[in-house]
Amino acid sequence: MFFYSRHKDLQIRTFKAARSALKEFPREVTPDIMFFWSPDPRLREKVDDWSTGGFLTIPLILADPDDPVSFVSLLRDYTFSRDLFYETTPVRGERFFGRRKLLQSLKDDIQNQRVTGLYGLRKAGKTSVLTELAEVLESPTSIVVLRDLESLPSPPDDPIPELIRDLRLDILDQLRSRQLRTKELGSLAADASMTDFKRALQKILRGNADDGVRVVLMLDEIEYLTPSDRIDVQEGDMTSVAQFLGILRSLVQENSNFTFVLSGLTSAITESGRLFGRPNPLFSWAKSNFVSPFERYEADELALSVGRRMGIGISEGALEALYEATGGHAYLYRHLASNVVLRLPLDVFHRQMDRVDVLKALEDWRLVIAGHMQEMVNHVRRYYPDEAFLLEVLETNNDDFAAFADELPSALGHLLSLGLVERRGQQFELTPVLQFL
Q1: Residue partners of 100: CB distance under 8 A and separation at least 6
Q2: Which of 153, 155, 338, 348 could staple 231 via S-S, CB 3.0–4.6 A?
Q3: CA dist., res. 261 & res. 63, Å (int)
């Protein structure tokens, strides 16, 4: 898209209007780049400031307007300066790669009112999947509330009263924005009990059902409700968590227009038979899904697509080296690719990432990433004690691993699903995530 503004004092509202116009164009228009021209002497400074990491605005200021190479150089200088591999926030839309089968499975679960849990290592992409899923589901009649539980107090402090208050306000905001019925939730007291919350939400669901309204709750970082290092998850004194999950299950069973999704590191909240001294209401009832590492073809798709948007060609050898070093773990894969990109020259018209570039970056990258990887493994040891034991056996005495794994088949399944262990014929090995800790 090329955008012209005649104003000598360019305002950000004009820039925002241009971006809004871009969204209305056919998909053939490049979605994340815009060329901008204005007689404003501060044009470059302004558009550089207003651009974001995921959207690039290039000011049409050429060193020599009569020289075509000037335009190519301008394009090179801006596209080559971006690092689109490095991401610190959940990705969505054009920046979301892979996981299509998982995304479709979750969508089917919600449409068929099946409660599901989404589990994976830290930075495996769980929140990105939920964010993309929320966008896919969003409609005038679909209310999707995504709540991160990390900010809540954790057991033995009771997190449920604050969670109920937050969910009430979030649902109210969504209902009001659609001019839907809100009376029962709106009049609910700030210190309402779980039963009061259930009754109010029940009336809202039934009152809006005729208009086709559906409510989906997504609770992310669910492990903060089950911190096994602070409280006994099976028999500890925190019955409100089990009671709250029981209320959510009851709402699903009694209303065809409500369901919920849980997401986090630990699957104990749906797979443990008991939860805080009570029968677990989600045991053998909620479905478990795991965010595994990328398949090779998914990782290649990410690298090639992102590389093209940065003007970088990536050879088959480089793709193979990226995958071998990271095992396809989403965060590690992006982080390594980002480190390789930083080493590529900028003063050329064609940038190429080859296997040798990846191998040269590996040693320094492993030093940088070691702390993050150790943190991921520590979280596994914190929430998956049986799995942590199997990892220790595999690290110290591979010959005994099969015997212990036979006694702990569920734990072995988790390690395979989390991408920490891989099967090689009849043997098991640590994946690259663990091999160079």
Answers
A1: none
A2: 155
A3: 54
Sheet holding 142-148, edge to edge: 142-148, 214-220, 258-264, 116-119, 287-290
Q: Backbone phi, then psi, for 392, in 5-degree steps?
A: -65, -40
Q: Which residues of 328-359 are buried (b: 16+ CB within 10 A; e: fewer)?
A: bbbbbbbbbbbbbbeebeeeeeebebbbebbe
The token pair at 2 is 């090329």
Whether pTM > 0.85 for this model: the answer is no
Number of helices and strands (H, E) in the chain? 18, 14
Peptide bond preceding 65: is omega within 30 degrees of 0, i.e. cis? no
- The single-letter code of the amino acid at 34 is M
Residue with tokens 């898209």: 1
Q: Which residues, listed in sequence order, are joined to residue 147 by a DSSP beta bridge?
A: 219
CA distance 129 to 114: 17
- Are 231 and 238 contacting, i.e. CB atoms less than 8 angstroms apart? yes
Over the stretch 292-328, which tens digit does the pLDDT of each residue have?
888 899 899 999 988 888 888 999 999 999 999 988 8
- pLDDT-based confidence at residue 82 (cuts at 50, 70, 90): confident
> What is each CA distance from 83 to 86, 171, 290, in whole angstroms?
6, 37, 29
Q: What is the distance between the alpha carbons of residues 79 and 58, in angstroms, rounded to a whole number?
A: 9
Residues 6+ apart with CB under 8 A from 211: 141, 180
Which pLDDT tens digit goes with each residue over 88-130? 665 555 556 667 888 889 999 998 999 999 998 888 888 888 9
For residue 172, what is the enclosing H or E element?
helix 160-177
At a CB cut-off of 8 Å and minimum separation 6, what does 120 contact? 126, 265, 290, 291, 292, 418
The helix/strand/coil state of 260 is: strand
User: Which whole-number Å values give the CA distances from 189 to 169, 200, 203, 244, in the listed order?
Assistant: 11, 11, 16, 17
Residues 209-236: tens digit of each pLDDT: 888 999 999 999 988 888 776 777 777 7
> Six-digit token pair at 39?
């007689």
362's tokens: 């590996």
Integer Cα distance of 78 and 73 in angstroms: 9
What are the backbone angles phi and psi of residue 209, rounded to the nearest 5°? Answer: -60, -40
Measured CA to CA, the distance from residue 126 to residue 109 in angstroms comes to 16
